[in-house]
Write a structure and sequence with these properties.
Blueprint lengths: L9 E4 L2 E4 L3 H12 L4 E4 L6 H5 L15 E2 L2 E2 L11 H15 L3 E2 L4 E7 L2 E6 L2 E5 L1 E4 L6 E2 L13 E4 L13 E5 L3 H12 L4 E4 L9 E2 L2 E2 H7 L13 H4 L18 H6 L3 E3 L2 E5 L2 E4 L3 H25 L24 E3 L5 E6 L3 E2 L18 E2 L2 E2 L4 E3 L16 H16 L17 H10 L1
Parallel strand pairs: 1-9, 2-3, 2-10, 3-6, 10-25, 12-21, 13-14, 13-21, 14-17
Antiparallel strand pairs: 4-5, 7-8, 8-9, 11-22, 15-16, 18-19, 19-20, 23-24
Length: 446
């Protein structure tokens, strides 16, 4: 039975529609072009739109420039150990789109994706498209994950997500409560404290990580010992692993380490995880010391694993001496509440993570909790694929350089789907895995 497209004109028919022109969508576009697969890339704004409009001004990539690579394209500047600023990231992604001639239709918002007899109907505000497969490359940072307790904040406070924050000039001179102590929360707390404001940081589960260890960037070590290549089918609790916070890192020309000790030495106040707001009084968990102790333990395991890898390869002579890190300093009895009704706090910034926006995806691809059902990016609807999600196929999947392997494997699956539904075998559990210390480290990180 033919599907009726209603009153909307059919704008075009292609094999594949890619939604999102960030680095993941452009990487998939390059793979499709290389394999002569007809496709189009829809982008609601501009190429690299989230980097242009949804990041704070001073942000730099957490990964060094030598890791900035996409299929057939990589950083070629004079500072491989530096960290790109936002304008540099935008220029890098723009350059990739131009080099590959990606068929991007900017300013084209997808309104709905629906399954039809022979594929999908993709409705945009500029017309309808028919296709046989759809790649969801709109990223994992579509919507801020703000807890329900935010509704209890006093009306006198300004409440904003990390996605809305640009610089300290947006805020008044009163104190700031930053909720969330992963990479984003730490960096915002640091910037705001340096601006002269009184800053309080609410800390829950976090991953403590040094910028450098034994003379090399931590990303060099994670790459060398195989942690970044660990696959999604090699972990016991994938749901938990995908929820692990981003590590406490910052990219600076000085390659500085930013952790809770650094912040408290500068005057930032630490409280436990925010658990509720009643009558304008914020309430915090009493588990701050436990969360910090667990982060310290995992950091020590990371250092020990790197040391073992160095020793096993006989590389000690080429490296500086092993390092051990001071325990996180926490008050013996941190306050469990903070009155937000008074003049001390003027702004609450939610650095509590993000979630993808699939509100326009009208297919049975979600579980009972509203999460996208997928197996390493192969969505539970034939012909539908996802890219750029945390630990989607590998631990590095959400990083720019992680797109290369993911796109190749998903591209092969997609290609087989387009050709009579023949599905290739992916690497089985254990194939391509790192060495044993790498596995032990990955367990320690979760």
């Amino acid at each position: 039975m033919k599907h009726s497209f209603g009153r909307h004109a059919v704008a075009g028919t292609v094999d594949v529609v890619v939604i999102g022109a960030g680095h993941s969508g452009l990487a998939m576009s390059a793979w499709l072009s290389e394999h002569a697969i007809d496709h189009v890339v829809f982008e609601r704004g501009e190429i690299a739109n989230s980097w242009r409009h949804e990041r704070w001004d001073s942000l730099r990539l957490l990964t060094p420039n030598w890791q900035s690579r996409l299929p057939g394209y990589r950083y070629a500047g004079a500072d491989p150990d530096g960290f790109m600023t936002m304008p540099e990231v935008i220029a890098f992604i723009d350059g990739y789109a131009k080099a590959g001639g990606a068929p991007v239709r900017a300013g084209t918002t997808v309104v709905s994706v629906q399954a039809i007899d022979d594929g999908f109907r993709v409705l945009t505000q500029r017309g309808q498209w028919r296709c046989r497969a759809v790649v969801l490359a709109n990223g994992a940072h579509g919507l801020p994950s703000i807890p329900a307790c935010a509704a209890g904040l006093p009306k006198s406070l300004r409440s904003m997500s990390a996605q809305e924050y640009r610089n300290p000039g947006q805020l008044d001179s009163r104190g700031v409560l930053v909720v969330g102590a992963s990479a984003t929360g730490l960096q915002l707390a640091d910037e705001l404290q340096r601006s002269g404001r009184d800053v309080t940081l609410a800390v829950g589960e976090h991953i403590r990580m040094p910028r450098t260890y034994r003379g090399l960037d931590i990303q060099r070590w994670l790459d060398a010992i195989g942690i970044l290549d660990q696959r999604y089918d090699e972990v016991d609790d994938l749901v938990r692993v995908r929820r692990i916070p981003s590590p406490q890192l910052v990219g600076t020309p000085q390659r500085a380490t930013l952790d809770l000790n650094t912040l408290t030495a500068r005057g930032v106040n630490l409280l436990g995880r925010l658990v509720g707001v009643n009558d304008g009084v914020a309430q915090f968990s009493g588990a701050l010391r436990n969360h910090c102790a667990m982060a310290d333990l995992k950091l020590a395991r990371l250092a020990e694993t790197i040391d073992e890898w160095i020793a096993r390869g006989g590389r000690q002579h080429a490296m500086s001496e092993p390092e051990r890190f001071a325990a996180t300093r926490v008050d013996a009895a941190p306050p469990l509440s903070l009155d937000l009704n008074g003049p001390r706090i003027g702004t609450v910034i939610w650095a509590t993570g993000f979630r993808p926006d699939y509100s326009w995806l009208q297919v049975p691809a979600f579980d009972r909790k509203g999460q996208l059902r997928h197996d390493g990016g192969v969505v539970a609807v034939p012909g539908l694929y996802a890219l750029g999600l945390p630990f989607m196929r590998r631990r590095k999947s959400s990083f720019m350089h992680g797109a290369e392997d993911d796109v190749r494997e998903l591209g092969e699956h997609l290609h087989a789907h387009l050709h009579n539904g023949v599905i290739p075998r992916f690497l089985a559990k254990g194939d391509g895995a790192g060495d044993e210390p790498g596995r032990r480290l990955s367990q320690g990180m979760v």
